Amino acid sequence: MIRTVTPNPAVDVTYTLPSVRLGEVNRVREVAEAAGGKGVNVARVLAKLGRPVTVTGFLGGATGERLSALLATTDGVAQEWLEVAAETRRTTTVVDTHGATVLNEPGPRLAEDAWVALADHLASLVRAGDVVVVAGSTPPGTGADELPRLLRRLHESGARTVVDTSGPGLLAAAAAGAHLLKPNHHELLEATGATDVRTGAELLLGHGAGGVAVSSGEEGMLLVLPDPAGARVWRARPAEVLSGNPTGAGDAAVAALADALAAGT
């Protein structure tokens, strides 16, 4: 079983109109809503691959109820959210002929014991051998020790963890022994201070990560695993550069890695 954890999910609202006129009344042509958050996106891809998947994380308020209802229309995705009192956030995207403008709400401020409750919740769901993907931002006010504490609890339950995060959380996840980290190359270099991808990945291995998969857009992906004789490195490049909107490509990559890990490949 694969489970995804989205600490800071959102209802993604998209407004489409011919042109945005600042300071004036604008009439929206189309409105679309979708359940959002990196872990949710990963779960959708896994469901399309035919892999049973369960989503969890913090969910609260009327926005949380709306997110759950939107996600319920996706076949193959089960929901086991931890309900909280604070309201789940929204992201708003305004699209016109000039492009898209995204407004991201920060997310709810959680009770002090919320992360402990999430760890307990996951411990009741996870079985030895499960793959757990922890992906996306954390709500404002989240302590630096919350993510590594959650990962250690998952490891005690026998789960294998895949983490897609950035900043100090990337180093903390490595130190907690995450089985696989999946930053993009910008996130990797920023978090580690390295000047090249391989060195940055090896630094994360040195912190305790079991493996590092680094996505680099059209340059493909680099997988770095520890070895007594030195890190083993694989590079995969697409046979051809794809065109189109790259949004969600990183989440699709995380889903593919989690699927392979669950399959034992």
TrEMBL record:
User: Which residue ranges does the record assign to the Carbohydrate kinase PfkB domain?
Assistant: 22-264
Q: What GO molecular function annotations does the UniProt record carry, in alphabetical order?
A: ATP binding; phosphofructokinase activity
Which InterPro entries would you find in this protein's record? Carboh/pur_kinase_PfkB_CS, PfkB_dom, Ribokinase-like, Tagatose/fructose_Pkinase
Annotated Pfam families: PfkB (PF00294)
Top-level class of the enzyme under EC nomenclature: transferase
Q: Name one GO cellular component term.
A: cytosol
Entry keyword set: ATP-binding, Kinase, Nucleotide-binding, Transferase
Gene3D superfamilies for the chain: 3.40.1190.20
Taxonomically, which superkingdom? Answer: Bacteria
Its Enzyme Commission number(s) read 2.7.1.-
* PANTHER family given in the database record: 1-PHOSPHOFRUCTOKINASE, 1-PHOSPHOFRUCTOKINASE-RELATED
* Record family assignment: Belongs to the carbohydrate kinase PfkB family.
Against NCBIfam families, the record matches this protein to: 1-PFK
Protein name, UniProt field? Hexose kinase
